[in-house]
Amino acid sequence: MRVFISAGEVSSDRIGAALLCELRGRHPAVEAFGLGGARLAEAGMERWGSGDELAVAGLTEALSALPTATSLAARLALALARPGSRPQLAVLIDSPGINLRLAWLCKRAGVPVLQVVAPQRWAWLGWRAKTLSKLLDGLAVTLPFEQAWFRSRGVNATFVGHPLVDQGDVPHTRRPNERPLLGLFPGSRRHEIARHLPLMREVATTLRGERALEVRVAVADEAMARRCAELAPDLRPATAAEVLTCADVALAASGTITLELALADVPQVVLYRLSALSAAAARLLLSVDRVALPNLLCDREVVCELLQDDATPVALGSGVRRLLDDPAAQQAQRDAYAELRATLGPPGFARRVADLAEGLLDTGGRSGVSRWWGRRC
Question: How far is CA 274 from CA 12, 47, 210, 278, in A?
Answer without folding.
Answer: 21, 30, 30, 6
